[in-house]
Amino acid sequence: MKTYIYNYKKQIAVVIFLLISLFGSAQKDSAKIVRSLTDSSKVIMNMDAIYNRPFLQYGKIPVALGGYVEANTNYAVTDGKTEGFSFQARRMTLFVSSNIHRKIKFLTEIEFEDGTKEINIEFASLDIQFHPLLNFRGGIVMNPIGAFNQNHDGPRWEFIDRPISATQLLPATFSNVGFGLFGKLYKQNIVFAYEVYLTNGLNDFIISNSQNKTFLPATKQDPNRFEESFNGEPLTTAKVSLRHRKIGELGLSYMGGCYNKFQEDGLVLDVKRKAEVFAVDFNTSIPKVKTNITAEWAWVMVDVPGTYTQQFGNKQQGGFVDIVQTILKRKMFGFEKASLNLAFRTEYVDWNVGKFKETGGNISDEVVAIVPGISFRTSPQTVIRFNYRYQWQKDILGNPAARTAAIQFGISSYF
Questions:
Q1: pTM of this prediction?
Q2: What's the pLDDT score for residue 387?
Q3: What is the CATH number of the domain that holds 179?
Q4: CA within 13 Å, CB half, 360
């Protein structure tokens, strides 16, 4: 990613300077600062997550600013071995939004990970509204595969680590340059929504990577994916969602396209090889008992060349389930809308679904984890969280699982 990062350092520095200047001016007249959520939809869905964030707007300036920060501690032991105790500056993300017209708006999201080890433009798109059911989006768009990829902001979650299925099975916060349509249709208690995009495609990092296995997140390593397609074939991403106001939201999504370079200057190098992802997600709230449930499951199919060994799987699957129970919600320690929550996550990923050709034995290469936790929210926008993580991971041969236990404490907040 370094080639791409360096090309944008000057631009990012200018953006940061402007942000600091604007916040400095705002402090001189704080009465004119308005904190708002820019999305005004009747029902908030996962597709609205990019705009459903707290922004600061100063006076009549048409630009709104926001962001979030995450930091934590980590102590992990794997089969009795540990690298000790560490503090981690996971990420800081900046949002800049502008209402160009009542039907035209722009938003960009710039993320700094591990200090400045990685700097990424995760979203930078222009939205033009023609009708609630027909809106155009173009620029760097976030591919809506599953729900977490769009709704990934740290302060929204009670867990310090992102789900394994969202980061090591699917490419978390995966975005590409392209265009598409999205919209909503309201009917009494039900809302139907859709998104469909054509973007730059995948690449052969999926099977040519340091993981030595089929690994979809490696597609993000292509430094040129924001300026040209790897093979000239577009990636199709589509999602439909249905939300009932009293039941919850169900989403079905698909992402697929050719990932290999099948020709060069008219010379045929290989057949077109396809990678496809199907995902289902569901979330609901039970107000009477103050319980929130979020679940996601994904299936990955990759046409792996026959010359590759069986450690490169052509079928993968995985997902997670989060349960968050609010046990206390009232004024605490001077915070008016504080809450204390218990949380539990269970997750699973199998990078190689199938059996060995020679023996008929199961191909493992899988991980199972449980993560109980407790969180204290000083407000809906700021969370202090403590997690205990226990994980079992098997290698491709199914040897006894490597066991990892980790204790994590951290904070995350919008600003």
A1: 0.87
A2: 98
A3: 2.40.160.10
A4: 0
